[in-house]
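Practice set, problem 2.
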Amino acid sequence: MNFKAVPSPWLKWVIFALLAAVWGSSFILMKRGLVSFGPHHIGLMRIGIAFLFTLVYAFRRLKEYRSVDFWPLAVVGFFGNGIPYFLFPMAVRKIDSSVVGMLNSLVPLFTMAIGVAFFGKRVRWLQVVGVFVGLSGAAFLLSPWNAAPGQELIYGLLPILGTVMYAISVNTIGQKLVHLSPMALTLLSFAIVGIPALILLFAGTDFVEIVSTRPGAWQSFGYVLILGTLSSSISVVLFNRLIHMTSPIFASTITYFVPIVALMWGAFDGEHIGWLHFAGAGLILMGVYLVNRKR
């Protein structure tokens, strides 16, 4: 998209809407990819595709690498761009993609909690209340009376673990890697996990056999391709540009719209969605609001 053609006052809203749509659609894309591939295929493909795509437009940023940054970049690579990419499709395989999308909204809560516990950040009592409100919403979503028949809700813990890892990554970036440009940070962190992921995908899985023999495999690969390029590469750059144009507070409000998009896709795909789901999502978003609320 040519952003130069968008009037300046509207540009932030265009980027905002694109990010909410792309990130909210990630979970239905995982679901479509799982038609032909396993969660480990999805994770390896997504990481590898994101790395290669980022390398194409940001390879010049490799010069920003410093050896002292290796371990923080490794943390961001594995916790921000690696392990969660396996946890989320594992969850989507067993529970509704809309529920996984709603649980993903816990990231700001865990970001605050981990920042307080391990990075010396200060906390207000209202933020503590927000964490407990948000977690109660997650428990509500995963409660037995709120489940569709046949769903294994133990898998609901996987996206929660993924949000904890995202939170570790966010805090690491804020404390250790603020000197890197957004493109360099994206490329270098993906490089650490992307190269091993590509080797494992082709040498350690039956990926080639699946795309060669299984009907519909290329269509599923197309969904993962969108996931890797838009959700895992371009969106990071757009998000950082949005922060630069506005503020972290404005950019963080995308959190409120991602589960709405995920719910809409779930309803379109025939997933079981009732008022209890809206109640659980509402509690999570209320918790996020309290955590982000100014004095």
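Problem 2, part (b): a different protein.
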Amino acid sequence: MKKLYGYPECLNKIQTKYCGGCGHGIIHRIITQLIDEMGLRERAIITNPVGCAIWADLYFDFDSVQPPHGRTPAAATGVKRVLTDHLVICYQGDGDMAAIGTAEMIHAANRAEKFTTIFVNNAIYGMTGGQMAPTTLIGQKAATAPYGRDPDAAGMGYPIRVCELLAQLEGTRYIARGAVNNAANIRKTRSYIKKAFEAQMSGVGFTMVEVLSPCPTNWSMEPVEAVQWLEENMIPAFPLGEIKNTLTAAPAKEEAA
């Protein structure tokens, strides 16, 4: 009998450090399943910075580089330029990529650097205590926005839609946004990441998949409630689908599953 499912070979069997209901573990499994499927374990390198992403290299049984906060795209650029036949992954959260790392991210994308970014968006600073992040929604409460994000308040502004921002740059080749709130969206997210990995290995420019993920701890919610909040609030604010796809014909957005 053919075995259809199993534990990914390049995912370490250790106890998770992530909070209950966090989406990082699902994303880790998607990445490792694809690397196994594509036969790239010996040619895969992940760069993961400060934040909840700092733990990623504990779970991935392949090479990793841990850059300073926000500098992941710069590190990935150097690695990919030297090891052009490797799968190089930037694994970044919203606080890292869309705040302290904005310059590195934008310029790497604009230069069409040939690595893939997995951008985990939970609309909050996770590791440091739930402060407002660049992607925090209007009205969403955070440690530094106890009454909710108010765009008219000093220093708050509006949530940044990173996919739409990067899609305007000529160096980006594939930009998609998925979610890990249910099985259907997990399958779609997997397909987006697979396309991005395949595009990178074929030598095209910058590719990125944003993944909407719950953060029950810093949203002060139970895991099931957090998934529901993501569906009712994050997905309408950050629409799912392929935002930019120059690999095929016209890009297409899709309704949430």
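Answer key, part (b): The first helix runs from residue 24 to 38. The first strand starts at residue 44 and ends at 47.
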